[in-house]
Design a protein that fits this description.
The chain is an alpha+beta fold and 219 residues long. The chain has one domain: NADH Oxidase (3-Layer(aba) Sandwich). It is built from 8 helices and 6 strands. A 4-stranded antiparallel sheet has the order 1-2-6-5. β3 and β4 form a beta hairpin. α2 packs across α6. The radius of gyration is 19 Å and the shape is globular. The two termini are 33 Å apart. The chain binds 3-iodo-tyrosine. 3-iodo-tyrosine binds next to α3.
Length: 219
């Protein structure tokens, strides 16, 4: 039974054909790359606001929007995050990651040093909320990982659309972010995303993407 109010859905139409639009959007999104070398060129906060609003327009379980985007521009806090992340990553690269894992990362040229955490003008730390707190009462959220993953995908697309670059960074374990950013117990860190312009000499590894035949099955 429909208990909430409903309004008509305003269908969107475009002047171009569906073929043209779907092809050009694919070509555009296919140019998105994870970048590890950032410029320190500033981005206005108001622009980041729009990217975060776009992320929060993602679908979520029972429309609970179970996320908090912590947007860090403070050089002091970025420094603290970098120090804590590098401490964990040093351990990861020196014994905590398996030989197979280290081997799998060779094409990306990653190591424990994370200079992008202080160079990029903004770090967006995405937190997931297992539950909400309303006047001290726990309110359940649903499909939290799926929802927050979707919102992060929207965020990456918005960053790319604005002409910026990003990296989905997963220092592990992530819990130092909870402490540094002083987040409440119902929030857990999900991903750390530096956002900025690419460095002038930024490079990305040569990668192929799977063909349609290798990743889609039609019935
Ligand atoms: N978190 C580490 C290791 C790492 C793991 C995967 I899977 C990557 O795709 C990339 C890096 C780091 O950030 O270096």
């Amino acid at each position: 039974m429909k208990s909430e109010k409903f309004i008509p859905y305003s269908a969107i139409t475009f002047p171009e054909s569906v073929q043209e639009r779907s092809e050009s959007y694919y070509q555009f999104m296919d140019q998105r790359r994870s970048v590890r070398e950032f410029s320190d060129k500033p981005i206005p906060k108001e622009v980041i606001d729009q990217l975060v609003l776009t992320a929060s327009s993602a679908p979520s379980g029972a429309h609970k929007q179970p996320w908090t985007f912590c947007v860090v521009g403070s050089p002091e806090i970025k420094k603290k995050i970098r120090e804590a992340a590098e401490k964990e990553e040093y351990e990861n690269y020196h014994g905590r990651m398996s030989e197979e894992w280290l081997e799998d990362l060779v094409p990306f040229g990653t190591d424990w040093q994370k200079s992008f955490l202080t160079t990029a003008p903004w770090l967006i730390v995405v937190f997931k909320k297992a539950y909400d707190l309303e006047n001290g009462e726990k309110k359940k959220n649903y499909y939290v990982n799926e929802s927050v993953g979707l919102a992060t995908g929207f965020l990456l697309a918005a960053i790319h659309n604005a002409g910026f670059v990003s990296l989905t960074h997963t220092p592990s374990p992530l819990n130092f972010l909870q402490k540094i950013l002083d987040r409440p117990a119902n929030e857990r860190p999900f991903l750390l995303i530096p956002v900025g312009y690419p460095a002038d000499d930024a490079e990305v590894p040569v990668l192929d993407r799977k063909s349609l035949d290798d990743m889609a099955v039609y019935y």
